[in-house]
Amino acid sequence: MATVLCVLFPDPASGYPPEYARNDMPVITGYPNGQTLPSPRGPLGFRPGDLVGSVSGELGLRPYLEANGHKLIVVSDKDGDSSEFERRLPEADVVISQPFWPAYLTAERIAKAPNLKLALTAGIGSDHVDLSAAAHRGVTVAEVTFSNCISVAEHVVMTVLSLVRNYLPAHEIADSGGWNIADCVSRSYDLEGMHFGIIGAGRIGLAVLRRLKPFDVHLHYHQRHRLPTDVETELNLTFHPTPQSLVQVCDVVSVQTPLYASTENMFDDRMFSLMKRGAYLINTARGKLCDRDAVLRAIQSGKLAGYGGDVWFPQPAPADHPWRSMPHQGMTPHISGASLSGQARYAAGTLEILQDFFEGKPIRPEYLIVDGGNLAGVGAASYRLT
Ligand code: NDP
Predict the structure, then answer these.
(1) What domains are defined for the chain?
(2) How far apart are the CA of 262 and the centre of ligand 1, in A?
(3) Which has the closest alpha carbon to 100: 132, 72, 70, 76?
(4) Which of 18, 54, 92, 197 could be bridged to 246 by S-S, CB 3.0 to 4.6 A?
(5) Which is it for strands 304-309 and 279-283: parallel, antiparallel or unpaired?
(6) Whether residue 152 has its Cβ less than 6 Å from ligand 1
(7) CA proximity to 97, closest of 64, 69, 125
(8) Residue environment code for 337-347, b if the CB has 16+ CB neighbours within 10 A, otherwise e
(9) Please, are residues 38 and 146 in contact by the beta-carbon 8 Å criterion?
(10) pTM of the entire structure?
(11) Dist. CA 130–CA 128, nearest whole Å
(12) Catalytic pick among 334, 343, 345, 364
């Protein structure tokens, strides 16, 4: 029998289950790169469209785990030495958390979990786990690759349009009974004709580029390996050998790389100094890719016309985090990958990974980040051990 410690975000303030807005979900048959959807064996412990990421949703894991004699502990209190998560950690064989409400698995915490064998990210991005410490201890780290990439790409497109068109302030004016057109439009532009650049044209970045193509923008990208020529041709992409080269010519920039030591603070004062005055920056990858106070300075100086996204550090962000209250921002809590559509896929993928793990079957390489004491599978391409 194994103990699975699952750290989930709190239920809705109005109670669980919420009143759902729709009766069904669109059916998708695969991912754009040909990767197959999560394929757990047997029934799902939830109905696709259910809120499974919060405490009462339990990622739908309880039926499977209890039928197989395992113990499921679900907690939400996750930060600090006296948190419920820390108290239950010593008994955990498996820890599951979502990047939206990350259970930070530091080296100290891994040392407090002698039974830990699997750290599973229900979603994408395992930077909340100290990957070197996990590798050193022989802990496997896995995540549900591709599960919510399109969810994030849609959020990026929404944020690009919201910032460039000045949608959020205009909505607030309508909401509060106002009608001052000049106040609504004095920071509003068309996206058409602008130069849009992605740093990290991977699963999410490429999906954003494809979605923005019909807006008649000039598309740019930077990453370490060039995309295939047919993709560059199809999207009429301009490749930049450095991020600095890209930011100098783009009106809107979005960063979509994983977070590891050498990508941390990629956007600092120096990078902002290279950008066009009035550029927009959208970050849905990880908060620490951008220097918190440099973003604030760039907004205050007018270097950035807008900053948006959904990722912060730490999470949840403190109430006085400057990105909450700075002007011209389109920030949300970390939600872009947590749509009910995304949740259905990453919960199914979590079940698939658990089934393989408990049945001694290999976990799909596209889900593996660390295994056998080193980076493995997709993790070997995405991360660096420090
Ligand atoms: P991918 O691995 O598919 O894409 C990442 C891209 O970044 C790759 O194409 C890679 O290309 C590039 N890259 C990596 N390191 C660098 C570097 N140092 N400089 C420039 N480019 C780099 O990942 P995904 O698109 O699936 O996800 C990206 C990130 O988005 C995740 O790591 C996660 O942190 C975040 N995410 C956020 C979510 C949310 O809800 N907000 C949900 C899902 C993911 P190359 O190797 O050629 O450089």
Answers:
(1) 3-147+338-376 (3.40.50.720), 149-331 (3.40.50.720)
(2) 13
(3) 76
(4) 197
(5) parallel
(6) yes
(7) 125
(8) bbbbbbbbbbb
(9) no
(10) 0.98
(11) 7
(12) 334
